[in-house]
């Protein structure tokens, strides 16, 4: 059975999202389009929370978000426990986000990457495994409640 990957965008990421949905299908994944469904102005947190909630609750192992800069989507998605949303603008950053940080939500800055760059980033992110090892300790520290400095 193909891995289901929820994907969402605001209006700025809509066109690129449509291209990535086609790419996901071509690569054998099952994209689940959570919106938006047009270029009409929308609020990015609505879509960030929809995708991140599925990752947080184990309904999906990973998800994809797009907005103009990627920043707003990442801010909202990272509010969900267990979600590690990474804004990625190059294949090298995609590889490190997965291998070192176990990023489970890919966030693309639609206004700053071309379609070809986005496809390469997507493929890299999908194919790169988490290294584990010393990185497990760091991931565990991300999930800890913040402590005041002593």
Structure description:
Helix 1 links the parallel strand 1 and strand 2. Helix 4 runs parallel beside helix 5. The longest helix has 13 residues. Strands 2-1-3-5-4 form a five-stranded parallel β-sheet, with helices on both faces. The chain starts with a strand and ends in a 7-residue tail after the last helix. It has one domain: Sugar-phosphate isomerase, RpiB/LacA/LacB (Ribose 5-phosphate Isomerase B, Chain: A). By secondary structure, it is an alpha/beta fold. It is globular, with a radius of gyration of 15 Å. The protein contains six helices and five strands.
Largest sheet: 5 strands, parallel
What are the segments in which pLDDT stays under 50 over at least 5 consecutive residues? none
Q: Give the ordered list of helices and strands.
A: EHEHEHEHEHH
User: What is the number of helical segments per DSSP (H or I, 4+ residues)?
Assistant: 6
What is the correct CATH architecture? 3-Layer(aba) Sandwich
CATH fold group: Ribose 5-phosphate Isomerase B, Chain: A
- Report the end-to-end length measured between terminal Cα atoms: 50 Å
CATH class: Alpha Beta
Percent strand: 15-25%
Strands side by side in the biggest sheet: 2-1-3-5-4
In which range does the helix fraction lie? 40-55%
CATH superfamily: Sugar-phosphate isomerase, RpiB/LacA/LacB
- The total of beta strands comes to 5
- Total domain count: 1
Radius of gyration: 15 Å
Mean pLDDT: 97
By secondary-structure content and strand pairing, the structural class works out as alpha/beta
State the oligomer. Answer: single chain
> Overall 3D geometry?
globular
